[in-house]
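Expect chain and fold; thus:
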Amino acid sequence: MAMAVLLSCSSKQQQQEPKEEATLSGLYKSKFETEVAGQPTSLYVLKNAKGAEACVTNWGGRLVSVMVPDKNGKMTDVVLGYDSIQAYINSTGNFGALIGRYGNRIANGKFKLDGTEYTLPQNDKTNCLHGGPEGFDRQMWTANQTTPQSVELTYLSKDGEAGFPGNLNVKVTYTLTDDNAIDIKYEATTDKKTVVNLTNHSYFNLSGVPGSTIMDHQLSINADNYTPVDDKLIPTGIAKVEGTPLDLRQPQTISAHIDDDFDQLTKAGGYDHNWVLNTKGDVAQVAATVYAPTSGILMEVYTNEPGLQVYCGNMMNEKETGKHGIVYPRRGAICLESQHYPDSPNHPDFPTTVLEPGQTYKSQCIYKFSTK
């Protein structure tokens, strides 16, 4: 009889325990809590005065979800990702990740500084892509949520990590502003001459239609020029967009020309290029826009960087299962990565990515959401 009473009490306690509350995007913090390399992972929830929400995890510094209103006021998640930390760890993709030490490609995994050649891991044919297979996207960042709307992430990339010289101290701050923008600020210092090119690799789909492609999205890029690439997607110089399918100075539906019979599109499998921005480092000027007619959501991109890599998910896995069991199709998202140009360390004529002791690397990218 006593045993029955104990069981009854235990059962009642379980019923009274409150269930974990989900974020606005339907995520559970408990699914993002584990340990990697002896450090705790977590989910940091940012909220603004208008009720928008963004979620960030400190594993890979990843933007997990961004909830903003569509034209009818319905809150909509506009970034792809997963709903558990284990799914991110198991994936080889870059959903929402902070990218470094060098975003984009470095040819043959080699570059020289002051006559010394540095060798990097080759993880994209013969190139080093996004800092190698163990780049910043797969590192543990130390997180400090400074306000309800901001989280600060720090990471020390040690001298020689992935072959790069110098101890690089990195700080990245995500802020969800009251005008429904994700404002990402990057800072870095080094104790030895090095190269650095940081960015964010969020995959955006503004449609509000789960599992849809971005082929109906309208894209504009404020750029007269781009960096054409060779067969290994390494820049060969700078060329004009005029007269090519890469002329996106006026908004165009992505499907209109992405599969045109044009050498550059054939090489990259569609749009996957670095545009040379007309904004000249002015973060107040619009660098690019993306608009989804189904939801009425408009995203404007602002940056102080000279380039913007625009990638339309040409290499996405057709059977990638993301948040809430949604299967992401090929071209299910668009990435807009603010950056210096690919392979800049091997192109003296490109804006330099060299950082010296005593200098502070500063970069900013803003993704601002509204409706029209």
Summary: Residues 29-371 form a domain with the Beta-galactosidase; Chain A, domain 5 fold (CATH 2.70.98.10). The radius of gyration is 22 Å. The chain is about 5% helix and 35% strand.
